[in-house]
Structure formats: C-alpha cells, structure tokens
Amino acid sequence: MYDFDTINDRRNTDAAKWDVAPGELPMWVADMDFQTAPEIRDALADRVRHGIFGYTDVSEAWREAYAGWWQQRHALTMDRDALLFCTGVIPAISSTVRKLTTPNEKVIIQTPVYNIFFNCILNNGCRVLENPLLYDGAEYRMDFEGLEQCMADPQATLMILCNPHNPVGKIWGRETLARIGTLAKKYHVTVIADEIHCDITAPGTSYIPFASVSEECRLCSITCIAPTKAFNLAGLQTAAIYIPDPVLRHKIWRAINTDEVAEPNALAIPAAVSAFTKGGAWLDEMRAYVWENRRFVTEALSKELPDAYVVKGNATYLLWIDVGAFGGDSKEIADYLRKETGLFISAGTQYGTGGEHHLRMNIACPRALCEDGTKRLILGLRKYAASRD
Questions:
Q1: Considering the domain boundaries, does residue 10 fall inside one?
Q2: pTM for this one?
Q3: For position 327, what pLDDT does the model report?
Q4: Strand 239-242 relative to strand 83-86: parallel, antiparallel, unpaired?
C-alpha cells in the first residue's frame, strides 16, 4: 500500500544526514530516507493551509493520542495528566539531569549507548558512571552486579535507561526491567527511560514500557517518548514525558518550563496526533520493509564476509555490526570506509565502552540504497583487511 522503494533526493534540503560530498552514501544519523506517512503529510498540509502560525497550546487530543497509542500498542494505561509536552527527548533528558542533580554528581548509563547521553551528563556538570553491558559475541545482557555497585554509590541518584537499546537493538525483557526497578527503589535512584525507538521493532514483537512493569518502576520513572523516530518527524521537535509520580512530575514540569522547552510549535501537535491516530498501517509496513533490509545485510555479510556480522537485535533500524576480527578500532575502520568507498556510517567508539570494535549502520532507506551501502561495506572491509596484511 505504501511506497518505500522510491529514492527521495535529500541533497540541498539542509538535511544534516545528507550534508556529504558527491558520491558519498550517508547511513549514519538516525533518521529515515522515507517520506513520512501520507496521513501525517495531509494533516500537516491542512495546518499549513490555515496560514496562521501563532502560539500553540497542547490539546486534549494530543494527550488522548498518546494514551490511546500506548494502550493499544503497548498495553500501558496512561494517566493523561501525567503527560508533559517537550520539544524533544534530548531536551527532556538534559532538563531532567539539570533539575535532579547537583554539579559533580554521577549519572549511570549502560554502554555502548547513544552518544548524546554523554553530552546531557557532561554539559550539566555531572560525571558519567558507566555500567557496561555484557557481550558474548552474539548479543547483550545487563551486568546487574555492576549496576548495583553503581546505584549503591551515594553520588549516583540518576540513571538513563535506553529501552529499546540504541545502538545494540535490544528489547529489554520484563524480568530485566523489574530488577532495575527493585534496585532503583533500594538505592533511591530515579530512572530516565529513553523509549524513543519503542515502535521500531521486528514484526510481531513489541517492547515493554519500563513504567508498566511494576509499581517500583512506575514511581521511579521519567519516560521520554515521541513519534519522531517511528514516523521520521525529528525536525518537527515534538515529544512527550510521562511521569506517574506527581511530585517528580512537578519538578520536571518546572525544569522544562525554566529551560523553555515545554511549548510546541504550530506543527508539533498535529504531527503527533495524526501519527498516533492514523499512522499505524504505515508504521507496520515500514517495520516489515526495514526488517527485510536487515535480513538482506545480515545474509550478504554471512555469505560474502562472515568475519563481519550483525549483532542479534529486535529493535531500531540501526545495525550494530561486529568488526572485531579485522583489528583496529572502529573509528579507524569507519574513516577508512568513508575515504575508500564513500560509505558514511558511525564508529562504535562514539558510544562508549564496548563500541571499540563495532559499526552502526542505518538501514531505514529504500532497498536500492541498502544494497548499495552493503556492497560498499563489504568492498571497504575487504580492502581494509588487505591493507593490514
């Protein structure tokens, strides 16, 4: 029903992803090369035709759209009054870090993890406390012994949980999330759950909202959500924060208002409402398409270059590729690939401990671009290996 095969020329549109040299193929930053759902484009066109773009309120329709989507898709019953508008997930996280910490305190993250988390912590005068994930060569799990040690540190009262996890593509299970909630209660730690990738999962699978797992999880959680990844709306600056505990919610409400990130632009509300009320069919087709891209890359590497392989994952449109067999760190390899083939993908070193021998590749693109990127990847890695002989 929907078209994901057409290649849309994004050059000369001020697209950050495509600000590259001629001949280069960018598969790095996490936005898609698909047009968003036509239902969303129609809603935005209607709003634009109105022609007046004054100050905009957060409507009840916005709250109902979020609550309805999370109830239907993720079996989480939201209190509508517990939802706050924010211009983005990262502004929400940064405001929360500023509000709930004092300078030189520690914030727990589980590396390798989204690199901007480091900025949210360091730019607010805090220190990063890494709880590296455990990797067995195929997939990842949490190190709970290490996590408890981190939470027991009296200087660590805040944790950023990535659920599903970017870049490793892991959907955390209910038991895992419950254990985090139990530890958080024991050590008085508040958990910021970044769940922005939650709707991009393998067909037939769904993530588990941290706040839905237990009363402990619910009361210690600040959940950051948005339609921006799932529907390719990042440039519209629209997100939400779900905070069940009223005292915690008041603090974050004050934080985002103080930081002036609590008011929507004229397109932010209709974009979210249309996504969550009319975008379901498009999303399901997109997920199936992306998972075919994932299958294509995984099988091509297995056949042509088995020393490089895609780490097992069931969420996000980002591949986490193990290139440890090639030697050298991932930044060196990523730089080589870009120089020799024009393929621009992300070095795992950006994501902290555990990313030294991995690359992150965005496959949310038409099949032809995915095939082109895969060919460049295989060619470049072969040349890189030969250069080290």
A1: no
A2: 0.97
A3: 93
A4: antiparallel
